[in-house]
Amino acid sequence: MAATHEWDLPDLALLWQWLLKKQKASTLLHGFQLFLEDSPLLIMLEVYELCMDYKNYSQAKIKLLTFQESLSKLEAQCERWPPVLPGPWLETQASFLLDLMLHQCRTEYEFGKLLELLAEAGAALLHGPDLKKLSALRTVLKDSPVSISRALLSDYSLEKFQEECRRILERLQESSSFSVARRVAELAALPVDNVVIQEALQNLLLLKQAGHWTQKETRVEFWKKCHENYVQNAISNRAASGFFSAQAELVWEDEGAPSSILERQLLLTLAGHWLVRSDPVPVDDLEKIEREIWRCRITRQTFSPGPGQVERRGSRQISTGRELSFDSLAKAFCFSKVAALNIPKYLELRGFPSQDAAPATLSEAEVASLGLLIGCLLDEGSVHEAARVCRYFSFYSRDVALILHCRMLALGEDAQGCFFHPEIQALLAAEDSQRPREAGPGKKRLKSSTSLDSWSSVGSSSPDGGVVGSLQALVAECVHGRNYCRQTLYLYELSKELGCSFSEIAAHDSEKLLRAILSSQQPEWYKRAQAFITNQGLEPEAVAELVAEEVTRQLLAPSEGRLKQSPALNPAEESQRFLQLAKLCQDRTLVGMKLLDKVSSVPHGELACSKSAGG
Asked: How far is CA 572 from CA 152, 536, 564, 566, 578, in A?
């Protein structure tokens, strides 16, 4: 029967594969030398022999490249006449041989060298693994005790490759091979979060075992390096935040160890700092962290050596340029000013604790401490944070309540509205009942020598004397945060002059508002500008820039439209206006320099003064 059987390619393939599985490559080699001496598969058998028997990988690489070249030539010849053994069939048998060689490697060394050879030669296995990725992974693992599972060769996909890399990562972390683990994670496009965090935890353990962890400077420097390392390795915001939060829970809030409270506060601040980097920011989680930070601040204040005195945030100075403290580092990562937390809803009366509210989970001493800290926040101008903290602890602060009522009045809310507190309603009612007796040609204002209050006496009359009077009454009652109330009153009156709502004017930045005042044609513009600059605390640099901009605008020729919408000024009035503009800035030299820069950029002949001189 064998004599009559017609042998074809499937039979030859079956024989090829069976003999190779039995490691009878020499038998195939002799057969091909006798019957198919021109076949490219003869070269592949030589590759097999060089690798598996002689470990001569460099020579085997040359042979493999020769085989690939012969296949290319064979494809070109196919256009003229068909070969005895078709190219696709040869490629399939060669792929089977290479795959089998990988499975038959006896040692990790052989496996690694063969992978390297195949990757460098650009060999590919039909429906097989990515040899370049496997070779790169094996190179990374070269000096580690962890090896690649050969099962990946038979069942390969990107998901399977990543699954194998996860297994390898676990083994590497167990053996503290973190640098290798990071490279594996990068190769497999896997997050390095856990690797980097586990390395940090091991370093922490080593510091404790060496007895260095008791030193405050060591701990401060360690947490700083952790943060920098997480940034460098681009770990996820959630992972970094979770790490610092977990470490904060491990720090004991000991009365006898105030540094522990400081350390916990720093760790919570770092946790919040990382959450802020998220998009979108998880506000609820951020608020929980901020609440815990404030617990630390309250505890510190309660047990501070000087009762009644508040140590302002970040007031502790470091002794040298390099030395750090928990406090100074926490200040560097403070997130209380982020936009996600400073939103209008915290300045609403809805949900703000009432006067009879009982502070949650706070002792009498802690309530007193919180009151001092809230006052400090208001003096700093941190009204949003003060309002949030009051809500966190159901704490009623009269000053914060006054500030929120000021804002509601300026926004146009009725004082008899359902959210106004009874105490404030009574205060406003008393002010309202006295107003008719005090009204007269010169409306009574708050008495103060500061320019913050001088705004109230500027202009002829307020469009809504009732609101102004109510705002003045609240300003007079406020102890901490009075400047914020004054600013509210000031911006309210300014909004009426400019013909817009308080909410619109409050949304604009200070420089834009000053620009509008400077370009105003109202008779009292100068006093208003003076009051605004002082009220908003604008820097001389910004004022000088705006003054120079306005002077240049007014110097432009009428053809530019300067005088189309405003009455013409005679030379004396114009000169007086320029002098007043210059006097608005404390640094006159700075104004001159800014003005020279702007005027020099205007083409000659386009300034009104140059045309007048020319005429």
From this structure: 91, 31, 20, 17, 10
What are the residue ranges spanned by the domains of the chain? Answer: 19-187, 342-432+465-507, 509-556+571-601
Which residue, among 146, 238, 231, has the nearest Cα to 184 in the 3D structure?
146
Two tokens, residue 12 = 């030859």
d(CA 170, CA 166): 6
Distances from the Cα of 268 to the Cαs of 287, 389, 395, in angstroms? 11, 16, 22
Token digits of residue 580:
């007043």
Phi and psi at residue 556, to the nearest 5°: -65, 150
Contacts of 148 (CB under 8 A, 6+ apart): 111, 134, 137, 138, 141, 164, 168
Instruction: Locate 98 and state its tokens.
Output: 């290479």
Cross-strand pairs, 103: none
pLDDT tens digit string along 166-220?
999 999 999 999 999 999 999 999 999 999 999 999 999 999 999 999 999 999 9
Query: For position 32, what pLDDT does the model report?
Result: 87
Token output for 229: 């390392």
Query: HSE-up of 226 (CA within 13 Å, CB side)?
Result: 29
Per-residue pLDDT tens over the stretch 450-491: 333 333 334 434 456 788 999 999 999 999 999 899 889 988
User: Is the per-residue pLDDT at 387 higher than 90?
Assistant: yes
SS (H, E, C) 312-366: CCCCCCCCCCCCCCHHHHHHHCCCCCCCCCCCHHHHCCCCCCCCCCCCCCCCHHH
Exposure string of 37-47, with b = 16+ CB inside 10 Å and e = fewer, is eebbbbbbbbb
Q: How far apart are CA 105 and CA 147, in angstroms?
A: 13
Contacts with 5 (C-beta within 8 Å, 6 or more apart), sequence order:
11
How far apart, in whole angstroms, are the C-alpha atoms of residue 470 and residue 476? 10
Q: Of 313, 301, 466, which Cα lies nearest the Cα of 371? A: 301
Helix/strand/coil for 387:
helix
Whether the Cβ atoms of residue 289 and residue 338 lie closer than 8 Å to each other: no
Instruction: Give the whole-number percent of the chain exceeding pLDDT 70.
Output: 84
pLDDT in tens, 545-587: 998 888 888 877 454 544 444 555 566 777 788 888 888 888 8
8 A C-beta contact, residue 412 and residue 495: no
Q: Which residues pair with 391 in a beta bridge?
A: none
Handedness of CA 8, 10, 13, 19 (dihedral sign): negative
Q: Are the CB atoms for 505 and 495 separated by under 8 Å?
A: yes
Report which secondary-structure segment, H or E, holds 613.
helix 608-614
- Write down the pLDDT at residue 341: 96
Q: How far is CA 384 from CA 105, 192, 404, 417, in A?
A: 68, 37, 10, 22
C-alpha–C-alpha distance, residues 76 and 327, integer Å = 75
